[in-house]
Each structure stands twice: as C-alpha cells, then as structure tokens.
Records
---
Amino acid sequence: MPFWFARGLRRGVVTTRYPARSDGSAAFLPTPPAFRPRQLTGQTADRLVAVCPSMALRRQDDVLIFDVGACTACGRCAEAAPDAITPSGEFELGATARSALVKRIPIRGETR
Amino acid sequence: MTPAHFPVPPSLPQAAATLNGVVGPLADLGGLVISDSGATRGAVTVRMLDETLEAATRALAGTAGVRLADMFAADDGPVTTLRLVWAHDRGYLVTETETEGGQYPALSEIVPAAFVEECEIYEQFGIGPAAGEPLNRVMLPPHAGQDFPRLGHRPPQPLDGAHARHTVEGQAFEFPFGPVRQVGVESLYYGLVTSGEEVVDLYLFTWHKHRGVEWRLRGKTPREAAFFAERVEGLSAVAVGWAFAAAVEAALGIAPPPAAARTRAVALELERLYNHAAAMAALCQATGLSVGQAAAEIALERLLRVNAAAFGHRYLFGVVEPGGVSRAPDADVLRRELPGAYDELRRAAGALLSTNSFLDRLEACGILTAEQAHRLGLVGPVARATGLPMDARRAGPYDEVPATVVTADGGDVLARFNVMIGEAAESVRLISAFVDAGTGDGRTPLPVTGGMGLGWAESPRGEALAWVALDDDGRITRARIRPGSVRNWRGFDDACRSQNVFTDIPIIEASFWLTVAGMAR
Amino acid sequence: MNAGSDGTRTGIGAGSAGQDPAGQGTAEVARQLRDTIAAQFGRSLHIRTLDTGSCAVCEQEIRLLSAPYYDLHRLGFFFTPAPRHADLLLVTGPMVRAFDGAARKTYEAMPGPKVVVATGACALGGVYPADPFVHGNVGEVLPVDVWIPGCPPSPLALLQGLGVAVGRLAEKTPGLTFIAGQDIPGGAG
C-alpha cells in the first residue's frame, strides 16, 4: 500500500469545486435548446415537432410546448431550424415539480 | 439446383474469399441459391431450402475460421424466414431459409451458440427447433400473455420451465439474487446454485429490462430509428449506431463519405478507450482496491471530458447517423487533450500490474478456454483473451488504417485485463492516424427505396451486428440489433462455474464488462 | 400515487405528509417537520440507486459521483446497497412494466422519511412512449419528489439535483423560460 499512498500524494487533489464555483468542463456539456420566437413560424414549429425523437415538443395553437424533462439535447431541432434555436447552456435542471420543466414558447409572437 | 459458377458482385471484394472458402463446399448439398439482389447486402447471401439447412449448418460449423455470429427470424407475410449470420475472417455469410410447419432443425445441437437465439425466436415467432433441450424464457416477462406484442404473427404456446437447465450434483443451495443489486449497477437477476461458497451454477434472467426495441423500430425511418439504436446499449452507442447505420447503407446500396467514415472510427476508438478505463475501475472496485479504482476513475473522467470537448457529448451520442456522421471531431482538442488522458490510464494500468495483491485475485479467475469461446460464439476481449484472433474492425475506414488485433493466452480475468490494456494503446494510435488522415462531417443522402442489409462494428465488448429490411417507402419492416453483450452473457455462467467463489463473480463480471441493456434490449 | 404534476409538491417525504386542507395548523407543523428533515438530510444522506430499464449510461454517470472529480462524500452523501438504510432513491430508466414489482418493493423497503429522485430523459417521460413494454415515466409507479433531466444527466447535473432534493440548493428551472434573449443569452428574442 505505501506504493499507492505515495502515488496518490504525488497525484494531488482533482475534486472540482462545484457547486461553489462553476467547473470549466461544463462548457462542453450538451444542453437543451432555447428558442427565438421571432424566427419560430407555425411551419417551423410543425417541422420541429416532427423531428424531435423524444416527444419533447408539441404544438398547441400558437404555442410550442417544450418539455425540458423529455429533452435529450440530441440537437436535431437545432439542425432543422438553426435560426430559431440556440443552445441554452443550462444543465442544472433539477426540479421539484414536473410542471416546472414544461415551457411555453410563443410562435411568431411577442415574448412575454 | 446447384449453380454452375458463382457470380461475384463487384461491390463485395470479401465475397470472393467467402464464396470460395466457405460456400463452395456447400454447393454439393443442393437446394442452394446464391443471391445478392433482393437479399441481404453487405454479406454474401445464400438462400436454401428447409431440407438443406441442417446439413449446411453442420458443414459451416465444422469449417475452420467460421463461427455463428447471429440467428434471427422475420415474418414475410405468412412465412417465417430464418436467417443465420456466419462470420468468416474475411466477411459475413447470411443463410436464409423459409421455415415450414412451424419448425426448423435442432440447430443448437450442432452449434451451441444458437441456443439463446432459438429461445428468443420461439418467444417472438412461435417456431421452434424440431428436437433438443427445453427452451427458456429470455426476453418476455412471465406475465406476457398471448396478446403481448411480438415480432411475429404466431404467438407460442406458453413456455414451461422458467430457468436454464443445470445439473446439481451432491448437496447444493439455490438462491435468487437481484434484480435490484449493488448500488450503481444495472438490474439483473441471477439464480445462484452453490455448495458452500463455490459457484456450482449461475443462470440469468434479463426480462426486467426488456424495452422491446426491435418491436419499436418497425415503421420508423432509418434516422428516427438511429436515435433508439444508439440507446439500446448506451455504453456502445457508437458501435451499435454504426452497425445499424451500416446495415441501412448496405440495404440502400450507399456508403458514407470517406472523411465521415474516419470520424466514425475516431468515435469508436474513443468509446473503446473510456469503456476499458471504466472496466479497469470496476475491476479495482470488485477486488477492493479503492485507490486503484480512484486512479482509473480519474482516467475515465478525463477521457469522457475529451469526448465532450471533441464531439459534444460525454458518451458520443448523436455522432453516427445513417449515411455518415452528424459532426466532425475537434481535431485540435483531440491532439491536445487525448495524450494526457491516455497517460493517466496507462500509468494506472502500470501501477495495477505492479500490485501483486491485485494480480493474485485476477489470475486463474473466471477461466474460459478457446474451445468454449468458439463453441458459445463469444466475441470481443473475452474471446481474444482465450487466444482467438477475431475482430470486426474490417473494411470501411479500417482498410486505410488497419487495426492490430490484441490477443492473450489463458482466458482468465488477467488475460482479459491485458487485452484491454493493449487495445487501449492501439486505440490511441488509431485515433491519431485517422485524425491525421482527415476527419469530417457529412452524410450521403438516403434514397427512398427498399432493401435488406447487414452492418457490423467492433464495440468495446465485442462485435455488434445489425440487420435491416426496408420497404419501398424506406421504412423499417424488420430491424435486428445484436450488441456484443448478447453473445458474451452466454459465456458468463461458464466463466463463473467451478473453482470460483461468490466474491469472484463481481471480478468476472467486471472483466467481461457487458451491459444488461444490450442483452435485454 | 401522484407525482407532482400539479406543482404543489415540495422536496421531502411527499409520500405521507403533504396536503391537509382541513387543518392549517397541521399543514404548518408538516412544513416545519419537512424543513427539519431537510436540514438533517442536507448533512448526511444515504442513496440507493434503482435501474428500471436504462441503457446503462445513466448508471455510469451515477457511479462517477463517488469518483475523485465529483466525490459526493464531501457533501455528506453516501451510497448504500440496503434500502433499509437509504433516505433517497435515485431512479433511472423508463420503468419497464416487468420491473414494477421490484421497484415497489425497493421503495416500500425504505423507511420514511424518504425522497424519490427520477433522473434521465427516459425516467421523465422522454425517449420511450408508454406502451405494453414500458410505462415511460417513473412517476407512474413511484411518487417522485425531484426530476433531473439529461441524456445522460452529467455528474454535475446530478449533484445539483441532489442538492435541490435536500434543500441545499435552490431550483433554477421555474425561473428559466428557454426563450433566447430573456434569461438565456445569445440571440434576438
């Protein structure tokens, strides 16, 4: 065991300081999309609903309902409508209510 | 009807080797048609009559260098077609037979590797071998009635007997373990038969995790299905995704752009690297060496961060797509970050190979012989550790940069550990070579047409196979996804039996490094 | 058992204590009890994992929680194999129907107060729709207190979710709109 002990001492501490300080590696994590309502036409919204493989998007009249909980951050919606979608950068998504993960995005309308 | 000569499709150079070495002798049996159009592309396809199947299987099983890689069925209208996939060191051979009367010859008597597939075919299609051992339940749970969704039209009569056959000599105690097991591992049910501490027998049930992926893929487009294919066994997302994409490409008669093919190879080798690091950490945990486990986990985390920085996902999801790849790796990041991450792994492995208390637990533990590996159709590091030089890294980008196959002798846990260490070094070399040769993104467009195709890739735990049949609208009528785990769990009970005690089981499980998800699908 | 789709649930022990429309006094006592429990859990928590049919990657991220980079032990969190000793059940997978009995037994073996955390898109209702093989959502079988999205959720996301579950970290999602230009930078809104 002294061999491993000495090796560990030489190696040093690698534990990240999260959550006290954000971890640099977080910048490379895939994150759910954020939407730009001005670029989100009805046609675009229908295309996005069709392309999502994980049932995270559905349309209700002039609102696009986005279920962050079902989203896998696969990126297919961003590929289908690159003007209307940008990475949100958010990965700290723990929620106590399931409804807090369901978001309403206005289609071709004003932002609230 | 024996063909006078064998026409070789120019798109399949391996076909010549397969035809001459393997199919040639079968021609004497009669009732054979070698077919490429309208049959499985990506492999040489031989259609044979029901009467010929047994003799053909016997002939193939007895041919050196040939092993059974998979067996599955598909309902084409009222007829159930049975397909066997044979692996040859130069390519694959698919035999297609329309079964009659709900039965086919007792193939597992000739090729024991076919037993699990016979059980699965019976559950899903209601057709069974004409003779042989009683079949087990494999994927469908006990409550699955006649109306439970199946891949075939004909539900089977209810199965008797809920567990694998085993012989118990002398006094033994049998107890169930699982499906909820240690923290942080997948759900899996073992039945352990023990006399004292020694493992007399061990059998597995995986129905607790059966998600019905092959059933779910019917009617989907290839792109829709690829999302599920890579989630069949997430730790082999690139390999299973590649096998599926290659099957679709073969069916449609297209190939990915060369730069995209090299990207696939880079992703596959990165996947191999992190899986071997994770297996090393699991081995340390199983042997109680916490510091070694921490060292391997540091290497694992660094490798996952390289994956995220290079490909945008720690586990490389969403990289491989039918037709090509969705993104190219960041070559600068790979060149800069990978050597340091691999160095962690190499030093941890070196330190472990100098720790006698660790090596003592691995030596002579969980031994499999080359004969067992061949008879049970095992693949990957488990098979290579018995000395069998099999590797599915053939064709495509590996024509340009061939992979050196790493084997070992002894077939024990230590041999498997040594194979993984050797493969990790080889993976780093391959990544560097592919990046230098030029990686890129890009997809060949998929024509909307029908076809059948076979695809394969070498996952970290062994050969992953996929087979698809597409209708004229380009949608899936039958998808077969066979991760490496399906083959190798078959060898797990053999490896655990006799000479091993309870505490050896986690060590053997770590050295196999399979997933339950890949088998249960 | 309902699983918080109406948004009135809070983190701890929602299986037994909870709504009491008849007595405000009782509700207040319950709230104080939950806060006390949260304070205790916040310092020392034992976690049991439960795989209901995942693809194995969520399990790998969970295993990394005890690895050097993340080291959940420094936060007072520990893994335990025994449900009897566990405070929190960390559930992955789309709840394969054949697993229901094992899931319920594991949950019932845990003494109260206890917390259920569902993690990964499969467990939250994504990837697999409900069909004869799977429920598609862990909340169909177990009363879930905290939901952690991701495919897989990284160890950082898991740590944040566990922090929310014990009341050490505030939730961010209720305040996020996922509309670019509002709370999220990077684009004409």
---
Amino acid sequence: MTRTRATLLEVEHVTIRFGGVTALDDASLRVNAGEIVGLIGPNGAGKTTFFNCVTGVLKPDTGRVTFDGHEVGALPPHRRSRLGMARTFQNLQLFSGLTALENLMVAVDAHTQRGMLADAFRTPLARFEEHRAEERARALLHFLDLSDRADTLAGDLPVGLQRRLDLGRALVGRPRLLLLDEPAAGLDTRETAQLGELLLRVRDRFNVTMLLVDHDMALVMRVCDHIYVLDFGKMLTEGPPADIRQNETVIRAYLGEAVS
Amino acid sequence: MTARMRRISLLVVAVVAVVWPALLSDFSRSLATDGLIFGLIVLSLVLLTGFVGQISFCQYSFAAVGAFTVGSLVSAHHWSFWLAMPLGVFGAALVGALVGIPALRLSGLFLTILTVAVALFFDRFVLASGTWNSFSGGLSSWVVGRPAFLGIRLDTSYRFYLFVLGVFSLCSLLVWNFRRGKTGRVLRAIRDAEVAASTLGINLTAWKLAAFATSAALAGLAGALLAVSIGSVSTGGYDLIHSLGVAAVATVMGVNSVASAAAGGLFLVFGPEILRHLGVSSQWFNLITGGLLIVQLIVTPDGMVTDTQQKIRHLLRHRAAKRASETPAEIDLVSANGQTAGAPAPAARPVRTGGQR
Amino acid sequence: MGALAFNSHLIPGFTVIGIVLGGVYALAAVGLVLIYRVSGVLNFAHGAVAMFATFTAYEVSTVKGAPGWMGALVAIAVGAALGFAIEWLTIRPLHGRPPLVKVVVTIGWLLVLQTAAGLIWGATAYHQPVHLVSRDGFHLPGANVTVGYDQLTTVIVALVFALAVAALLRYTTLGNAMRAVADNPDTARLWGISVNRVTAASWMVGSAMAAVAGVLITPLIAFDTFSLTVVVIYAFTAALIGRLSSLPMTVLGGFLLGLAQTYPRVFSSLSGTADLVTFALVLLTLGVLFRPGGRKVRVV
C-alpha cells in the first residue's frame, strides 16, 4: 500500500550517541498527514531516544528532523508546540493539583496573551478569554467523556481517565501532529481497546496526524496505518500492520514475544 | 462552597471587620492593624509557596526594602508617603525578581538554602547599622508620620485601621482573582509539572520571575505600611527569625488558602498578646509556633485553615448529595483525603504538603 | 562605609583566626553532611542543636563551675540526645513524605530550640565563652603572630573529630551500614540493615559533632542564642562546597570559608563582611557546583 499523502514529519538519518553507546543509528522515519504511524521495538531498542529527539528533548548528532517543511532539530520543546506539535507523556505529568477542567484550561491559557495584571482586576478581556477557555475545555471534556469528572483533581483520577486527560491536554491546542509516548502504559486490555477507539475518533474528529510509540502490540496493530520497527537503534523494517505481523525479522527481534 | 454562601460569609466578615474595631480600644485596634499588615506578608507566601510551590524564608527582607525606602524617603528626604510607597513596593519587587533569578535553576531544597542566605545577608550586611548611618544621618531619626488619604489625615487609629483594611482586602481580592484565573492555573501547573507546562508553551522563566516579584511586592507593601504604623524604622524587626516565623505561621495556617492570610496575620499579632495576658512571656510565641509547625506537618499537612475549608466543603457536599439521594458510591468519589474508591491506584497522586514541594 | 585600609600586619593573625574558624565550620559541616547523606534531610536546626548543647556546657562549666572538659562532654551528650529526639519524634513519622517537608520540620525545631534557649538563658545576653584550655599561647617562629593554645586545640580537635568520623564510616560496621543506607536505603534494608537505627545513629553522631563545634566556637564569635544558630548557614556553605557528598571537600570548604570570611577584615572594618562573603560563596557554589543536569548528588 503506497503512502501518498503529504509528508508532515520527516526524520532523516538521525544518529545519537551517549558516550560509547549509539542509541540511534541512521534512523529514518516519515509520517504523512492524516496517518497514525507506530514505532515499535524491543526494550532498549531506542524508542525513547527517538521520541525525545522528535519532541526536542535531545538534539541529533547527525541527521535532520523536519516538521511541515520547517527544520526543527534545534528547536526546544516549548517552541515546537507553537508550530503545531503536541505530545503526551509516558508518566503523565498531569497537573495533579488542578481539576480536570483546569488542566485543559491551562492548555488554552498557554496561548493567550493576557498577563497577571488583567487577571488581577478581571478586565473584560480577561473575563472573555476565561469564558472561552472554559467553553473549549468543557467541549473537549465532553468529547473525552470526562464531563462528570470536570471538578475532580487530576491526581485523584484513575489511570485510565488520567491518560484520557493527558491526551485531551495535548489536543486543546489543535495540533497538527500528536506524539504519543506509551499511551497504553498501565492500562489493562479493556482500557487499551477503549484507548484505541478514542485515538481513531480523535484522528477523524480533529484531523490530527499521530506518531505512536508503544509496547502494546494489540494497540499498535489495531490503530496504526504504518509501522516502523526499531532495534538496537536501527530501523529494521517498516510497513502496514499486516506485513509487520508476519515479518520474520521482526518476530525474531522480539525473540518469540507473542505478536497478537 | 456555593457562590451564594461565600458571598454571605464574606459580607458577614466585612461587616465585622469594619464595625467591631470601632468598639475596641486604641491599643487593640493598632494590634488588629498590624495583624492585617503581617497578613499581607502571609499573603505574599500564599502566592509564592501556595501557588508556585517555591519556599521563601526571606519575605521580611523584601518587607525591609519597602520599609526602608519609605523610612528614608519620607523621613530624611521629606517625600510624600504616596510617592515613597510605590517606590518601595517597586524596589521590593525588583529585589524579589533578583532573588528569583538564581531560584529559577534551583530545586526545592537549594532554593530554601538560597532564601535563608538572602535573609541572613540582608539582616547582617545590608541592614547593618553601619551601612545606613551614612545614608541619611542615623536611623534613630527616621520618624514616619501618618499620611493623608484623599485629604483625610490617617492619624486616628480607627482611620488608619480602615485604610489598612482596605489595602489588605484589595490585595486579598487580587490574589483571589489570580487563583481563579489564568495566573493561578499557570502557576500551579508550573508547580505540579514544569516540563509539561513548558511543552504546552508556557514560559517558565517569565512566570516564575513574575511570581517572585509580585510576592516580594506584597511583602514590600507590608513593610511600607509597617513603617507608617510603627512610626519609625529600625534594623531589628526584619531578620531571619522573623522570616522563618511568618513562614511557619503561613504553613500552619495553610499556604493554599487566601483566607490563611488574615488568619495568619492576626495569629502573629494576637498570639503574643494572649500570652502576655496569661502572664507568660511573649517570647514563648516563637516556641509555640515552631511546635505547631512540627505538629501540623505531621498531623494536618494542608494547614489548619485549608483543612477546615476542605472539611466544610466536604460536609456541604455530603449533605447536598444526601439531599439529592444519590448512591453512596458517588459520594465516595472524592473523599477528604483524595482517595478514589473502587478504582485502581492512580499513577500520579497529589501529595498534600500544604503547598511545599 | 567602614574604614578601608590595607592593614597587612594583620594578615598572619587573621590567618590563624581564619583557620581556627574554618576548623569549626568544617566540623559542623561534616556532621551536617553525614545527616544529609544517611537520612536525606538537610537539618536546618543543626546550628540550633549546637547552640543548645553549647549552652548546657556553659551552664555546667561557667555557671556551675565544673571543668571545661566536663561541660564539653555534657554538650556532646545533649547534642546526641537532641539529634535522636528530632529524628525519632518528628522525622520518622514523616516517612514517605516529600523530603522538603522534613526540612521544614527542622525549621520548626530551629524556632523551638532557639526560643527555648532564649527563655532559659536570656536571648540577648552576652555570655562568657566556654574555655577548654588556657588562653596562653606560643609564638610562631618566622611569622609575627601568637597562636593561642585554645586556638591550636580547636583546630586539632576539629580535625581529630572529622578524621574520627571518616574512620567510623570506613572501618566500622555502623559506618558501613551508614554508607549503605546513604547509597540506597531500600537495598540496605534488603541486606538486613536496620535503616531506622542507622538513621538515628547518623543524627546522633552528626548532632554530637555540631555540639563540639558549638563549644569550640564560643571564644571566637558573639556567644548568644542567635549567632550560634545561624552558624548553620556557614556550615551549609562549607557543605555545599563539598557538594553535599565529599567529606574531604567539605572539610576543605570549611577552612576556605573561615579564611574567606576573615581576610576581608584586613581591608575593611565594615560589619557583616563575613555574611557578604558567605552569601557570595553560597551563590557561587549553587550556581557552579549544582547546575541542573550536573551529577545528581541525591538532590532533595
């Protein structure tokens, strides 16, 4: 199956070394608009390093990362969000002291201009933006089926709902590209299936492209249009789920790990 | 608390705050005034520690900037209080931002050490009498008279009290507005998960510095008012122990509640007074505060005021839920200690430590 | 501004003072680092403990007339007892809470001990220092300075205690247990080490050292409840120079601080130069040695 859409994210021949260890070795990857691309690999393959490179936490030693035509290799993480890149966190990094609603509102706040002074005196602008932020946040909560938990502290939510909230937080800014870091970590089979459904709905509703890094084969096989396989820092192979499922090299790389 | 209940209780508090002191003696009134001024310093900690999670043990140093600016400008250079005070507040904000700069890169513990070092440095070097004698003819001559507000001289204790009450209420309202709005959300987000906040596009540096500056400004304002209230400025009242004491009281009351400011300030003033009435040396106050701090951290980590508010909220929610006769499982959703019944253990649990991280 | 002049003839004398002061700082700092490494708590009440213990020595020897060394022994006992009390009563119940909470608890203890001492012995009164050894001295050949026996004793005692702790950590079972707990309490527990007992021991030893430092420092600084309590900041600074982990560097840091605080007085008699220097050093060490992304040293 050919991938014909426009390329949104292009990682070209990236190498990253830590001391004597080559974490990524000439790794390349492409994500086209509207796709959900998965990156899998056994433990220690370099998935986290790759992810950190794309999100801007690490700079590649060689190679290039291009997003929507812009070269972003040197851009720090908080600048990438303005370009349209958003990410979720493996360890959630939710704002545990804020309610679910406030967590989403902060994501809107981050892009508003008003400062402390406007807030302090509740100027009409502040009130207007506040109202709008709340509306957007509530709409997203509704989509995520979290409306009944709007006033619950994020830290009090069960893990499954926290993951949903994390996802919502990344979506608030209407990103073009969503990077998901082990979104199924800590979820059971049922919750993972729900997550898969949610991701597909998100893709359709928000027209957002995704790059997904995870261990959970069920999720990846189900949700992704195209899969890349990483091992020892090198890209082993790539292809649609059906091909990857039967690929000998991949199966051997996982040393008999059950590929469902 | 529903909005209506909050409005009613605020109204009651406002009436009491305005009417009752009219019936008190001059002495009690001036105590209450000082209580509100100290309350401003506690408020500054609510902003810094409660919102941003940054510990500061040098708030009195910022207050000193405000006090000394007013003291020197009004007394020695005959400026009007209304010009000197904003300058003092601004100066304090500046110093606050300066302290905030190294604080940006330091985590909790080292930030604490830094603020203690700042307090000590201020106390023993900047405020040392040698430094200031040359500035304007000796500290002992720094007498600050009561200014006139809109033509009325604030020379009676009741008038001055009302003025301070107005200032305190305004500042509390501002901090409360912060909490409800974007500022509170952003600052608390930075406190909870810096990296995520940064990823969303929040400028950590700008916000943290702004928080430090605003907190210091509040303390500076308190210092300026203190200079007027006492009528003079001396080097003695702004040392490390004072800063530690106010931090301790703020923690005991709970840095997460704006109401802690008034409670803390009044506690700082009337505590020693009550002790004196009981025939006990007021020196015991610091000891009791330290003891309370230790006990509170172990027993009610959120602080007395915050804890009480939570309990009231919980009680009201419980009663409302009962009235609506919902199933018991719904009530368990958010219990007092934040446990969610019947759900797998959440990965990220809010750690209730009264705002310190 | 105080008189600014270059009084070069003061240098040898000030060097001696700086070294003596530095020795005391080093001793206090080593105790602080020990407590920090083993229990993970930066004890802000370290100076207050030293102060309180020193005052009991003062009570025993200067007031009641017992010999100086007996007062010192009492101070050590009181210091160890206080350290144990703080750990057992107020740190242990906070197990599992963020480390910063435990640090704030020590602030509470600072207030309690400081005020208690003020109530018992008078907050602002000046007290006669505790003398362990005679104040006579000997003339140092070559340099134009007299070194007091008490000054010499101070440096020697400080170094001896510092070495004793190093020996304790290296060669005794308790010391090995302490190092194991400092590295990783969970692993240490798996090895059968009673983390609670070892932690309590570290607090006792550390606080005892603080007590000795307190007794030694009384002839050098204003002996009142406040000054001794804030010596903790100087101990902190030395500990920071040692990156809160290396004992030799901590000792070195102590001496460095002592000299750095004393030498400026060769130039100026401005009060508070000690604190200016300390502040500068604190900023410097925090900025240089504790860069984020640098080697993590069990940072709280």
